[in-house]
Specification:
Number of helices: 5
Distance between the termini: 11 Å
Number of strands: 13
Oligomer: single chain
CATH class: Alpha Beta
Number of domains: 1
Radius of gyration: 17 Å
Largest sheet: 6 strands, mixed
Order of helices and strands: EEEHHEHEEEEHEEEHEE
Mean pLDDT: 93
CATH topology: Rossmann fold
Structural class: alpha/beta
């Protein structure tokens, strides 16, 4: 599988890259024809800082109190907070919080009582690794609003061309960089119908080859 891999680079900084594998992959809710591997951005300091710098540039004129991170993006979120608070923009001298929520089995966002002060009446930047259809992002935004937060932006490393009314969405790499990227319901997957085996199971932790 790895022999088919290639890299995609953020247009504004080639130090930000993601590795993609063509094939047949199963996620929790769908089958996809590419595995998008975010390991470097999530785990390597230099890659995380480079990604954070690009996001911070995009949100330098947006006042942010809290960054909610999904898909193990907390290191990138911390670097975004550091970059924003050291700039001369609207976040100068602020103490930005970086938190990660829990989710129910049906993907509803949960915040424990100790985290509520960081969300209620706070301006929230939502940070995630991937957001292709926008469904997960929209669900998280509904959760933020349920807890009294004010979502002011969505940041994703790899994302589709979805829009969120009234909220800026920033992508570092777009699905258009993988023009044949596709996602299918498991029961409607054409790769399964062709008898092609699943190469790996994938989630936000990574992939496990079959």
């Amino acid at each position: 599988m790895e022999t088919r891999a290639f890299d995609l680079f953020a247009k504004r900084n080639n130090r930000v890259s993601i590795r993609v594998f063509p094939g047949h992959f199963a996620t929790q809710h769908s089958h996809v024809n590419y595995c998008v591997d975010m390991t470097r951005v999530k785990t390597e300091m230099n890659a995380a800082q480079a990604a954070a710098k690009l996001f911070a540039e995009s949100f330098s004129n947006v006042a942010i109190d809290t960054i909610i991170t999904l898909e193990r993006m907390k290191m990138v979120g911390a670097f975004i907070a550091e970059t924003l608070t050291s700039s001369t923009g609207l976040n100068m001298n602020q103490n930005i919080a970086v938190i990660s929520p829990e989710f129910t089995a049906d993907d509803k966002l949960i915040l424990r009582d100790n985290l509520l002060p960081y969300v209620k009446h706070r301006r929230i930047l939502l940070l995630t690794a991937t957001a292709t259809t926008g469904m997960t992002a929209m669900g998280a935004i509904r959760g933020i609003r349920y807890y009294g937060g004010d979502p002011v932006g969505v940041a994703t490393v790899f994302g589709g061309k979805f829009e969120v009314p009234g909220i800026p969405v920033v992508r570092l790499v777009g699905v258009e960089d993988l023009p044949d990227y596709d996602s299918f319901r498991p029961t409607m997957c054409p790769l399964c119908k062709k008898g092609l085996k699943v190469d790996a199971l994938i989630n936000s932790y990574g992939y496990s080859k079959m």
